[in-house]
């Protein structure tokens, strides 16, 4: 099925091209394993353009073009197709500015991620694109080129203007920190702090471990659905920050934000989900709430897809599934989603996805690699459990879309920090 083009898009000329799904995908029988629904899509674009009014998606408020959701609103919103940069994202004169200090971390000094891993590669993600899946399970990607390896990474620390040495500060962790939020974060922080719209926060930009996706150190850290990455940040990164930069970081989980884009975005949520005693605020652009976990885990076979939705494959034996607080794994099974089957956690999350976000970029016909559907399902799961969240679907936007980030970042930061200051410990 080919849907109408979303406003602001010009579809590629000519006839529709074949659906951009892997070979042998199930796009016919929704009752069979690994079904992929192609409804409500303009397949003449790659990735396809999703219709924001797809009946599979939860209801959302569509805002006038160029507007962003109110910073006190909860729920689902549609923005675009025009994405003007917010004035706070641009370098400003006449205000006090924070400073950046940088140091390097190495796997030689790590306990949790020593050794690291890396793939033998001949081009970006080439071995992932060439990988096969298990004969009886298209959700299990067989990456055979990954080996133990060392890593080094930069860690950059934004210290806000006026910070008094020795003062306990709220802070934000930013995954993929070597990119510094597309160059938008620092001027935005300077502006919002000067305007007292967010607290004077320390921001820790943590470099990724290298490469991307399955079989890489970055993928291992960000896409694993467990508390390991949060523990690495707590036990190795934060002490290194306090040793190398004259700052003191709060232990109050309400004074901590985890932020990221793509796989770093799902990692931000994973930090809060498994360790709400450490993180309770999350900000994510194009979060990878899909099946990217590697190696394949039979206890959580859908990876991050299972935060919001059941595993899309055939029925599985009951295993001791991780991540559930209640009811017990024995009563829900290995393929059950985490959020619907766990008590509400004290997590506040802002997240965004583009209407032309990623769609089956790896050869896994598993029904669990549509970034837009994953975020829409996530919004529905959060709403059903009564979470404090704001979800934005941006028209005319791709994966971790820089114009959309420039439009929404200031209001997203204000939203995610709403209710702070809280007491520091």
Automatic annotation (TrEMBL):
Ranges annotated as biased composition (Low complexity): 1-14
Disordered: annotated segments: 1-30
Pfam families: Esterase
Protein name as annotated: Esterase family protein
Lineage: Bacteria, Pseudomonadati, Pseudomonadota, Alphaproteobacteria, Sphingomonadales
